[in-house]
Design a protein that fits this description.
Layout (H helix, E strand, L loop, with lengths): L10 H14 L8 E2 L1 H8 L3 H13 L3 E3 L5 E3 L4 H22 L5 H14 L7 H17 L4 H16 L9 H16 L3 H22 L6
Antiparallel strand pairs: 1-3, 2-3
Helix pairs in contact: 1-3, 2-3, 4-6, 4-7, 4-9, 5-8, 6-8, 8-9
């Protein structure tokens, strides 16, 4: 069963999400200084929830405090990205195996039909690519039956997305095909096939980044 919906968000939670969204979307880039008063004014909130949001992001390691007291967006690079992908492979392979047989068939079919339809497109925007990627990986995490594992997956996927590494433009079609293989295995309730399909998908992503970053083929 999927986890129940979260309760209505507080002002502090909405503020945190708004700042995090700005970081993820690169409206606030790596190394940029975050000014508490300016951000509070932009979001039309008081400085109290803004301070709470910034402190939370500092505690999560997404922001960093400089020796002069300034708060900046922490920069994650290629090394961190490759490490995050390795961790994701371990966690999400297991999550896929656990999710096999737990996801309602109608939900699997709904996601599968959307992925199948976009294979006819010639290109996706980065936001569309992330959206489809999120749909499949979140579906697995939400139905793995392990809240701690789901939270760890969400965290490491977020950190991977924050890495200041250019996205691989020609991977989207292969990624959707790999996602379909994952969904097919989940639809058969085949835990080992689901694990293998997820591991293969993430290994392919990591291998593509290794090649793009110049770690292979030299």
């Amino acid at each position: 069963m999927p986890y129940p919906p979260k309760p209505l968000e507080s002002v502090s939670e909405r503020t945190y999400q708004a700042v995090l969204d700005s970081i993820v979307s690169r409206r606030i880039g790596p190394g940029e200084v975050l000014e508490e008063r300016r951000l509070a004014d932009e979001l039309a909130v008081s400085r109290t929830p803004m301070r709470a949001a910034l402190n939370r992001l500092l505690g999560e390691g997404i922001l960093a405090r400089l020796s002069n007291g300034s708060v900046i967006v922490k920069a994650f690079g290629a090394t961190e990205l490759l490490e995050f992908l390795q961790v994701r492979t371990l966690l999400e392979g297991e999550a896929a195996a656990l999710a096999a047989g737990r996801i309602p068939p109608a939900r699997l079919q709904e996601v599968r039909e959307r992925l199948q339809a976009i294979l006819e497109q010639t290109m996706l925007t980065e936001q569309q690519d992330w959206s489809y990627d999120n749909e499949v990986h979140n579906l697995v995490a939400q139905h793995c039956g392990n809240r701690t594992m789901a939270a760890m997956i969400a965290d490491v996927r977020l950190r991977a997305r924050l890495c200041n590494v250019e996205r691989i433009a020609d991977r989207w079609l292969l990624a959707r095909q790999e996602h379909l293989a994952i969904l097919d295995a989940l639809g058969r309730a085949d835990a080992e096939a689901a694990r293998a399909a997820m591991v293969a998908h993430l290994a392919n992503v990591r291998q593509a980044y290794l090649k793009t970053l110049g770690y292979l083929g030299q």
